[in-house]
Structure formats: structure tokens, C-alpha cells
């Protein structure tokens, strides 16, 4: 089984209405064999996720998380703490159809600068858009269970560290 190591971030900022979190809508194109009617039905539900990606050789996971945040959201953020790891297995839907064991380390980041969704046009292959969502709504809006858990951990950290 192939092993993949990735890292990502929960980027938060405090707004007048409360804490907000940066989320991405991954680029998901329907296969051409699916009818136009079916494509409309599948595209009605927006899939939201956290920015994340593979750790490059020589890179530390925290560096990867910061890089992925910039690449996928357009934001520069300061690392605060490690939130935890998600571990799972999947079968690649492309190429070799190989079974993969994946570990994704997530970090909490505090927003520093940048405009959400101002990303390199080349990244549009991966990211349809990036947006701010209310942190309190994130666990209902994110698609993946492990990422929802990381958001819950971020919420606990923010409650126990009000000076952030």
C-alpha cells in the first residue's frame, strides 16, 4: 500500500459577527459521460473542504500547510498550533487505482493578510473558489468527517485561548 503525507490548515479571523474560517470548494468536474441534467443535479450541493496538499520533499508539514493555505485561498496566515492528524485509506480513482494510506496533519492559523480567492489561475484546476464561512457553521458545511473534527478542535482552542 502506498503512503501519502499531507498537511492543511484551519485559517481563522475574528470579524464583527464572530469567528470566520477559510474554506475551499474543490474543482469537481462531472465526467463527460454524465448527462447535462445529471451534472446540474450534482452541482447543486456545494462541497466545502479545508486547504491541504502533499508534503514536498524537504518540507515540514507545518510549512506545507502554510503553503497550501496561500496557494488554495490566497491568504497569508500565522501558525498557532497543531490541531491533529487524520488517517484514512482510499483507492485512487485515477491512473493505477492503487490503494493509499493517507495521513493529513492539520494546523490552526490566524489570518494575517491577503484577499480570499485571489489565487494563481493555475490553481483553478484544483480550487473552484475560496470563501470565508462562519466558524460556528463549518461543521455543518464541510464535507469530510475528519476535517469537521479539526474545526471542532479549533473551536475548543479558540474558547480556551481568548487572546488570539
Shape: globular
**Which structural category do the helix and sheet elements fall into?**
alpha+beta
**Radius of gyration, in angstroms, nearest whole number:** 16 Å
**Number of H- or I-type helical stretches:** 4
Number of strands: 6
Unreliable residue stretches: 30-44
Listing every helix as H and every strand as E from the N terminus to the C terminus, the arrangement reads EEHEHEEEHH
CATH class: Alpha Beta
- CATH second-level architecture: Alpha-Beta Complex
Features:
25% helix; single chain; Nucleoside Triphosphate Pyrophosphohydrolase; 4 helices; 164 residues; alpha+beta; six-stranded mixed beta sheet
What's the helix and strand layout?
Blueprint: E1 2-15, E2 18-26, H1 36-43, E3 52-54, H2 61-73, E4 75-91, E5 99-114, E6 127-134, H3 138-141, H4 145-160
Parallel strand pairs: 1-5
Antiparallel strand pairs: 1-2, 1-3, 2-6, 4-5
Describe the 3D structure.
This protein is an alpha+beta fold and 164 residues long. Helix content is 25%, strand content 41%.
